[in-house]
Amino acid sequence: MVDDLRGADAATVRGAIETSDPLPGTAGFAGEVDGRIVRDVLGRQPIYLDTTGDDWSFDPNDLDRPELLDAGTVVDGGEGRQVWSLPDLEVETDSDAAVDAVREAVLTSVREPGSEGLAVAFSGGVDSAVVAAGVSEAPCYVAGFADAESHDVAAAREAAEAMGRDLRVVGFDHADIERAVPEIVRATGLANAMDVGIALPLYFVAERAAADGYDRLAVGQGADELFGGYRKVVTPAEDHRVAAETVRGATREVIATLPQQLPRDVLTLRAAGVEPVAPLLHDRVVDAALRLPADLLATPDERKVALRRAADGVVPEPVRSAEKKAVQYGTYAARELDRLARQAGFKKRMEDHVGQYIDALVAGEA
User: Fold this and answer.
1) Residue 90 belongs to some domain of the structure
2) Where is the Asparagine synthetase domain (predicted)?
3) Which long-range contacts (CB under 8 A, 24 or more apart) does 47-50 make?
4) Whether 35 and 100 share a structural domain
5) Which of 82, 111, 134 is the last residue of a domain?
6) Which of 242, 190, 194 is nearest to 68 (CA)?
7) CATH number at residue 117
8) Which of 59, 76, 129, 178 is deepest in the core (most CB within 10 A)?
9) Which domain does 326 fall in, by range?
């Protein structure tokens, strides 16, 4: 098979298997090494096994019955075992040292990819701004519904101006959504409203970047999970969305969702013609994030505390402290997907009306 291993060299993966090291210094890996099928601890590279035989692929559409390999797994001789688990690292109690470690890890990682053939998915928040700061020559792209100035487009314009960056706005309309939804569903195998709503703006940005001649797209994925970006980790004992009762515990719980989320983004971007680059998911960043105390993750007054402090002097102050909506809402993708569903006769009173509309689009019946 061409391209048997992605994200790391064989020697690094062999060493990680032998030592059970979950963070061997990569940005994630998957593939085949010495006849063994592997997927890294956070599942940053998706890989699928065919349940009807011994075949595997990075693309589920290559297989008759694809099944996503669990993160941290090594399959040898048809038998899978979990070799890597998210480590429980010692907490850094010195706040300044913890922030310094995050700053060093993040800045090293965002500079590492280089600007050649690279564009940046840019929403105007601290995550994408830090990524963009590492590749100063790369153009920035933001998507938003064409008939209104979406939150993400407005925020990206302000941030790009403050940073002196080239911003390219990708406006999408209803026809674009109707065209893209079946392509996203075919690429990812996901047809629910949430996943499709998240994937749509990523797809449009990647499609435009590819048309402009770029073959890599830098994204800020992982920052919310690693650094305490979700509201549900602020007071977890009072939030039914998490089982943990501490900020650190809830953050680890959220990090554990990455292996199921990331294939959606990776497969969407590849379907649009670019290879994703996620520097904030590099092992060195993961290591620094896992050592953060609760008050540097999320408090009632601020989320992603350490990341924002680490970004001081790297991105302008209004960008460093800006709050951002989830991408499906900030770009109006979810709103317009819902509007199209209702216009097609799938009313809100119907169960999962947007999901039914998506199914109809894929089937060519809407």
Assistant:
1) no
2) 116-235, 254-348
3) 49/75
4) no
5) 82
6) 190
7) 3.40.50.620
8) 129
9) 95-330
In a domain, 132, yes or no: yes
The Cα-based distances of 82 to 21, 34, 70, 71, 143 in angstroms read 12, 17, 8, 8, 38
Q: Which amino acid is at 91?
A: V
Question: Is 40 in contact with 26 (CB distance < 8 Å)?
Answer: yes
The verdict on residue 150 lying in a domain is: yes
Cβ-Cβ contacts under 8 Å for 334 (sequence gap 6 or more): 193, 197, 328
Sign of CA dihedral 9, 11, 12, 16: positive
Instruction: Write the CB contacts of 317 (distance below 8 Å, at least 6 apart in sequence).
Output: none
- Spatial separation of the C-alpha atoms in residues 109 and 44, rounded to whole Å: 15
Q: Per residue in 201-249, pLDDT tens?
A: 999 999 999 999 999 999 999 999 999 999 999 999 999 999 999 999 9
Q: Say whether both 245 and 126 belong to one domain.
A: yes
Question: In 10 A of CB 49, how many CB atoms?
Answer: 23
Answer whether residue 196 is part of any domain: yes
